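May I ask for a protein sequence together with how it folds?
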Amino acid sequence: SGSKMPLVPSFRIKLEDQILQGLATVGKFDGKNPCLTCATSGGKIFVYDPYSRRDEQDTPKVRYLNINKNITAVASGRLDPNIGRDILLVGTNTDVMAYDVEENRDVFFKEVPDGVNAMVCGRVGTHNQQPLAVVGGSCNITGYDADGEERFWTVTGDNVRAMALADVTGDGSNELLVGSDDYEIRVFANDDAISEVTEAEKVVGLAHLSGSRFGYTLENGTVGVYEGRKRKWRIKSKNRVTAFSAFDLTGDGRKEICVGWSNGKLEVRNQETGEVVYKDSFKSPISALLRADYRQDGGGDDMICCSLDGEVRGYKTQGALGGAGSLKDDEFMDENVKEETLVELNQKRQDLLAELKGYERNTRALYNAGVGGETETTGTIPKDTKVNSSLEMNPEEGCGEVLLSTNNDTVIKAAILFSEEVFDEEARFVYFPNPQRVAKVAIKPKKDSAADVAIKVLVSSRTSSTYHVFEVDFRLPRFCMYLPLKALPQVPASSVQVRIAERLVKIAKWIDDAFMLQTSREVDDYSEECGCHMVCLRDSKPLSIRAVNAGDDGCDVVVHCDDMDTCGEVIQDMTKALGLGDVECTADFPYDMERLRETLTRVDGYNALRSRLVTDVADASNTIKHLVIRAEDSRILKDWTTMKRMYGELRDLNRELIREHQKRVENHEALLAALREVNQTIQKTAKLRAGGPKTKMVAACRQAIKVNNVHALFKIIQLGADLAEQTAGFE
């Protein structure tokens, strides 16, 4: 066609080994030359070095590193700036290893009982003085320095799936973006989560764009961009995202979103609109998207795309190859994308023409019926027709109900509700066989989170078959699933108490806004207390909130509920709504603490069993060596009877080792589940606090667990780090 393709392949490599999904990195392991490093089948890592040649064939050298374990994460970086070269980081289900490729030696090896799901290398927060290997595991994140010493630790809500380091707040130090299996995207500044966004599926990919803007991908094939907590756009595909990154490919200072799919498609999207500006295809799923000056030809970095079958392609912009300046968006789009855009615009044209014909048909019907034509035959409705919306609780059905109503004799025949936070299928269509002015739609969010619900209401006259679509935007409050009660049959045994420097009137106003109540009507500056009693329609658990005037010190707020998660959500919502800073609490959760005690006991048992199993395997390995030597000696001496007996014992011992291995696997899985429970409990208790006390509590809990001080751990959870240290002498 003669048109220029802005992204052109700069190189193509066909490797003999597979490249596993998400397990690839590029590192300068000699300090100068970039090497492609990938995990492949059989628990192996291969390093493809195009600058090291074999003498005979003059082909790039491939070196292999046998891990002999299931590899779960691969990364590289300048972990030790003093040596001037990158270090390879390899994570498995049980440990993390830092490896010096140039000197062929381990830098450090650390056992990680929680497993390694994601890994990045760089500086984190106030740990800015030294790079860390940041490891995301089961509900926690740990940072190791070049000596393998733990320098950073915090908890998150579930298994960590994606991480990215970036200066999100503009304070000059890196924050940590974390995506996890609980559908949350969190931003950590040091040990504290300063921002949280709830999505509709497990978060599997994160990429920083600029400032507070970042891209994300979900397990269900969703790709999107957030600006802080506000989503700018998203798209969803039936295919699965297998690689995700962001690079400035046009040279305009703005990164493009790069996505690799399970069907082998490569897409580059504009970060502002999500529009596809370039695409390519591979024969197998995309495994990784990387960036490096791989050819070192003076043309800048290549975008490196790796596929599962070992195909590697590098891409450069024509501006980089030809010395031109930055590319405009229309120059960046290739012919295929332009053709698709024309098809989409033509489809929109056809839709608009069909809509116009519908208007013309209705107008003719109205004209034929006369100026005073009846709405039943023409399908028209009064011009002032409106659709109102509200929310009511239905305790009999255990759900909330969105009430839709018209302001005249028109009726509602159907409604379509869109909200990914509320509906598993992201949308719900409701048809009303006997349409009335008022329609009710049951709604039951799984979590206590505010959500926007976009509603399309089909309205018509009672006998007409022509529908008019009204669009209604409805805001679902965070705690909409709580039914107010005059009193509770029994006050929950668990509670959390905080003292805040705020007037009782403001606390009452917050209660009204959060729970759709009218508590503030009975409260003024002279009131001694206020509160409310409720029951959750999801699980029938009671919730009680009571605020007592403490004079010049503010107010004491006590939340009674046997669900620690709910108490944490209430405290966090109050902290945010009232603009509070540091919030310390006194927590009393007897049921949760008893479960935690039992879990810690199980952890001790699993660790003891693991040590015993490791010892047994070591003893069996020595026995195997002895049996092999005796069998070979017998073979040389032609003592066939002894040789058969030795190999028979080897066979039996091998079977025993297989059984022992299965025991180790089951024990490790049970240990992982128990550790996840411990980390989740710490994360829940952290949400009962805010600011400095929250950060201190997490760090103190970590220290108590490391030294196996259960008594101190419970004191920290109950009183906070500072008061626990004073009362129990905890160090």
Remarks:
- Confidence is low (pLDDT under 50) at residues 1-5, 321-334, 371-377.
- The first helix runs from residue 318 to 322.
- The chain has eleven helices and 40 strands.
